Amino acid sequence: MKLKSVATLSALSLAALAAQATTTDLGSLGTAITTSGGVATSFGSIVNDDFTFSLGVASTVQSSVSTFLGNINPSFYGIYTAGLDHIVGTADDVQVVGHGFSSGNFDTLAAGNYYFKVFGLSNAALSAYSIAASATAVPVPEPETYAMLGAGLAAIGFVVLRRRRD
């Protein structure tokens, strides 16, 4: 009976160790960042990792997560805000967008602090994934652009008005 309890406790301890979440700081997201994400070391291991990043200005974020060893399925990742307490992984975090493991996802985000949450289940003895992300500032039109738009609309309106009179 005691051996059965020890075996059960050992199995639970190993499962808990395999499911430990890690948090990695990617810093200020700008040019392309690629990092090897995480490794699941046994069949049935849970991948549950966070990658924090910040945006100085409103940006379009291109991101992808892909398995390069073994098999992680089901799998998904999302972009979250850290909530009002600014602590990653608490109850007030808000998911901004969610994706399955894939490539080429584009999301427009405001300036602020965010994190990628990667979650999956390993279906192989050894599985690993990588995450890639980059941010491009969203272009903001200059006031002259709006002035040119207004002048063009006024010119078209003037031409239409003259044709109606003729």
TrEMBL record:
InterPro entries per the UniProt record, alphabetical: Ice-binding_C
Superkingdom of origin: Bacteria
Pfam family, one: PEP-CTERM
UniProt KW keywords: Membrane, Signal, Transmembrane, Transmembrane helix
Ranges annotated as spanning the membrane: 145-161
Signal peptide start and end residues: 1-21
Ice-binding protein C-terminal domain location: 139-164
Protein name: Putative secreted protein with PEP-CTERM sorting signal
Organism: Roseateles saccharophilus (Pseudomonas saccharophila)
